[in-house]
Design brief:
The chain is an alpha/beta fold. Helix content is 53%, strand content 12%. The chain has a five-stranded parallel beta sheet with strand order 7-6-5-11-12, with helices on both faces. Strand 8 and strand 9 form a beta hairpin. Helix 4 crosses helix 18 (491-502), helix 6 crosses helix 7 and helix 17 runs antiparallel to helix 21 (548-569). The chain binds one RNA strand through strand 9, strand 10, helix 12, helix 14 and strand 14.
RNA sequence: GCCCCCGUAGUUCAACGGAUAGAACGGACCCGUCCUAAGGGUUUGAUGUCAGUUCAAUUCUGGCCGGGGGCACCA
């Protein structure tokens, strides 16, 4: 439709001898402005030496001879916009279109044939899975899904730091915990094992600051070269239980990784790459090997790639990771999701990779997100450090239980889990991903308005209405040709609801193009509010109401769009709540 | 000191250079025999500041003020 209108306008302009004007035809925000609007008159008024409104009127009469058949009327408004209104059938057709498409509604083939890899979550074995990982996972999963609904082939990757100083710290801690031998650690749950490791890391971390630096660095070396059998034993056990614990987290959050990359696998190739370019790209400095990124881009800075002890840093391993990824899966786009505190490191790393392999580096795209913060004093961590994902989920589940018992509803564990995770995911994805999130536990649990549970509740409500209709034998109004019969009072209201539902594919497209899941969130809140309004005013299931079948069709269309949208956000819809 | 990000109702967030800056929470008021009121309706209230570019600026550019993050052997 947009393209058709654009073509018509271009042709009309050409008649007047105007050619290279750049104007837009866009979907409007406000239905009083019609469905599509163009700014062509305002843009070209200067060239034609006339005022925008007069030009718009002339253009309208020129255009009206040859308009697409779906157009009902054309108006000039505001400072010179031309608004195009569509016929009623266009909107009711979208309802039957949604019902026909079902879970495919909103999907497109815009990126068909594209191969995409998305790396996210990236927890570190031996450390806890904390709320930062929760954030990365939520955002990454959503971006992966945004690619998928646009037809791209997506592979999910997770890069886990199973070597490095943090591991050495944890091992130091494991060695110093006296109960280690008495504790039958292997019989503990993965969560408890992870807690033990987290505690060990805290001890090691404190020891590192408090005079055990050399001892811990010694452990670090031994982990890299696997020269100490006692340390190897602790390492292998810790790595194993950590990964098992992470798997449980991924399952809970609804992510399945296609590839797992490990820092331990990147150490050797990382060293090799740096040594290969030593003297050219990398320089020796104070015994370490560094990359002077500022020589290539004044905004960057120098970073160490190989320490004076001969160990590869994160940066060196990252170079190997880029290579390993490209080898494993030849992606057209390789997305990496990290916290924005790593923007500087990543920019330098990408510059280094660009110098080595310009072609592959150009496909790498870094998406960074803010921090998930909790108002201080609201929640404390058992391990005394960062707050783990489990601790956050647990506290939300407890609040939910209170809420459920207040309203005398029952909730099973599965529902509690999907609602609590939905609450967290929504509060992450409701705002632009670059900025920090102040996660207010109380507010997320108030479950009113702008929240994940509000969306889930709307979907559940629509579902239960459809169930009721089935039980009462009231059918939706799909005809044999698959079209809906439209019969409804309050036409303008219905129309704006239909109109809203018809926008979903455009919203998805824009969210995907801009790495901006919050467009989906905002949109879903709008349709949920619109549906709840509809629900409050209309009795949907009513045997005696001739409008009931179409109301049911609308309800089903709403439910479809809501489910498809929540899927993109990675939020599950419970059966009932 | 240098680099990056961010300043929008009392609060937490939206807004592809366009029309009347959109929600939610909070405040005030209203809706209970009816499909799940975890709901709905009415109302209150905001673009840090000074310039510039533009027919049009929350959006782009620059200065100032304020907040966050990063800047060599951690990741």
């Amino acid at each position: 439709m947009k393209e058709k209108l654009k073509k018509n306008i271009t042709e009309a302009l050409e008649k007047w001898g105007v050619s290279d004007v750049s104007f837009s035809v866009e979907a409007t925000n406000d239905e009083t402005h019609g469905e599509y609007a163009t700014n062509v008159a305002m843009v070209s008024a200067k060239i034609l030496k006339t005022n925008p409104k007069a030009l718009a009127s002339e253009l309208v009469s020129e255009l009206s001879e040859n308009l697409p058949k779906e157009i009902e009327k054309v108006e000039v408004a505001g400072p010179g916009f031309i608004n195009f209104f569509l016929k009623r059938e266009y909107f009711s057709d979208t309802v039957s279109h949604i019902l026909k498409e079902g879970e495919h509604y909103g999907r497109s083939v815009a990126l068909k044939g594209q191969k995409v890899m998305v790396e996210y979550t990236d927890p570190n074995p031996f450390k806890e899975f904390h709320i930062g990982h929760l954030m990365s996972n939520t955002i990454g999963e959503s971006i992966a899904r945004l690619y998928e609904v646009q037809g791209a082939e997506v592979k999910r990757a997770c890069y886990q730091g199973d070597v490095g100083l943090h591991v050495a710290k944890a091992i130091w801690g494991m060695q110093s915990v006296p109960e280690r031998d008495e504790n039958p650690l292997n019989s503990l749950s993965p969560e408890a094992q992870a807690q033990y490791l987290g505690h060990a890391y805290q001890l090691g971390s404190a020891a590192y600051e408090g005079g055990e630096k050399d001892a811990i660095e010694e452990i670090n070396r031994k982990v890299y070269d696997r020269s100490d059998s006692e340390i190897n034993k602790l390492y292998d056990w810790g790595r194993k239980v950590s990964l098992a614990y992470f798997d449980g987290q991924y399952k809970k959050l609804g992510t399945k990784f296609d590839f797992n990359f490990f820092e331990s696998e990147m150490a050797k190739p990382g060293l090799e790459i740096v040594r290969k370019f030593l003297g050219r790209l990398f320089q020796e400095s104070d015994g370490a090997i560094v990359f002077h990124a500022e020589k290539h881009n004044p905004k960057l800075h120098t970073r160490v790639y190989i320490t004076s002890q001969g160990l590869p840093t994160y940066e060196a391993k990252e170079l190997a990771l880029h290579v390993a990824k490209a080898r494993k899966y030849p992606a057209d786009a390789s997305i990496v999701i990290t916290a924005n505190e790593q923007d500087g490191v990543f920019a330098v790393g990408l510059e280094a990779f660009r110098q080595i392999d310009k072609e592959h580096a150009s496909r790498v795209k870094h998406v960074s997100h803010g921090m998930l913060r909790l108002p201080t004093g609201k929640m404390s961590s058992r391990t005394g450090g960062v707050i783990t994902a489990d601790e956050l989920i647990f506290s939300i589940v407890s609040k939910l239980k209170e809420k459920f018992s207040e309203s005398e509803r029952k909730a099973d564990e599965v529902t509690l889990e999907s609602v609590s995770i939905g609450a967290i995911k929504y509060s992450i994805l409701r705002q632009s991903i670059g900025s920090d999130i102040i996660f207010d536990l109380e507010k997320s649990v108030s479950l009113e308005g702008d929240s994940g549970p509000y969306l889930q509740y709307a979907a559940v409500r629509a579902h239960s209405i459809l169930e009721k209709a089935k039980a009462e034998g009231v059918r939706g109004s799909l005809t044999s040709t698959g079209n809906v019969e439209v019969r409804l009072p309050h036409e303008w209201q219905t129309r704006s609801f239909e109109r809203l539902l018809s926008h979903f594919p455009e919203v998805v497209e824009r969210a995907g193009a801009e790495f901006a899941p919050q467009y989906i969130s905002t949109y879903l809140i709008e349709i949920a509010a619109s549906f709840n309004n509809f629900y409050a005013q209309e009795k949907i299931v009513d045997k005696d109401d001739p409008h009931s079948p179409y109301k049911l069709a609308l309800t089903k269309a709403f439910r479809t769009v809501m489910e498809n949208g929540l899927w993109i956000l990675g939020i599950k819809v419970p059966e009932r709540m």
